[in-house]
Amino acid sequence: VLESIYDPEFPDTSHFRSGQGCHSVLRRIKEEWGISRWFLEFDIRKCFHTIDRHRLIQILKEEIDDPKFFYSIQKVFFAGRLVGVERGPYYSV
């Protein structure tokens, strides 16, 4: 659902999505910049918990009218994790 709505909005310089990835971004860098000696890589996984989930849901509701979708999204967003379980699955609380 999200990909069909938002993927067309991404510029062609966005990678790490369907049909894009490490190789496509490296190819593009080489084509546009030539040979580089170094690159910076950022990992934003740890930023997920800082997202205002209520605001994100409001933004998504401007484009999507599907109660089942939002039920599923809210279950994912607000699921807890068992204490002491390292890299274990998420559970509803």
Automatic annotation (TrEMBL):
Q: Which PROSITE patterns match?
A: RT_POL
Where does the Reverse transcriptase domain start and stop, copy by copy? Answer: 1-93
> What do the Gene Ontology cellular component annotations say?
mitochondrion
**What Gene Ontology molecular function terms does this protein carry?**
RNA-directed DNA polymerase activity
Q: Which domain of life is it from?
A: Eukaryota
One GO process term, biological-process aspect: mitochondrial mRNA processing
Protein name, please? Putative nicotine oxidoreductase
Q: Which organism is it from?
A: Noccaea caerulescens
